[in-house]
Specification:
Helix content: 10-25%
Structural class: alpha+beta
Oligomer: single chain
Order of helices and strands: EEEEEEEEHHEH
Number of helices: 3
Shape: globular
Strand order of the largest sheet: 1-8-3-6
Largest sheet: 4 strands, antiparallel
Distance between the termini: 40 Å
Length: 125
């Protein structure tokens, strides 16, 4: 419905969870914290945002985020241009538990390159 201009997703992220360090080859990514406490790593910078806060990850910059709260948190994620939804659709069909190599292959096919571990591992609290 956006004619390819953007994708809007809402994600529920479990306590202490978040994605592996990755980069988007073609999308810029904006995060809006609907509920909870998060930290965002973008390049060498690490910032915290709570309910109502925002953070930005430009395309090509390695980034990840982590729910640092003790309860599930909610993020509104906006990417531009659209297309990232295909990564989520395809990765949701992978058998559980997800094999990291299979996830990396789905990412690569959808312009997402995984580069390292989640922030909870690379930068423990």
């Amino acid at each position: 419905q956006t004619n390819g201009s953007l994708t809007v997703l809402e994600l529920v992220i479990g306590p202490k969870h978040g994605p592996a360090l990755h980069t988007h080859v073609r999308e810029d990514e904006l995060w809006y914290v609907i509920e909870g406490e998060f930290r965002f790593k973008a390049g060498d910078a690490m910032l915290r945002a709570s309910t109502g806060g925002m953070a930005f990850g430009p395309r090509g910059l390695p980034h990840c985020f982590q729910n640092i709260g003790d309860t599930p948190g909610r993020l509104l994620i906006v990417t531009t241009p659209s297309g990232l939804e295909r990564f989520f659709e395809e990765s949701s069909r992978l058998p559980r538990p997800v094999d990291p190599e299979a996830l990396a292959a789905v990412g690569h096919a959808n312009w997402v390159e995984f580069l390292g571990p989640p922030a909870g591992i690379s930068d423990p609290l």
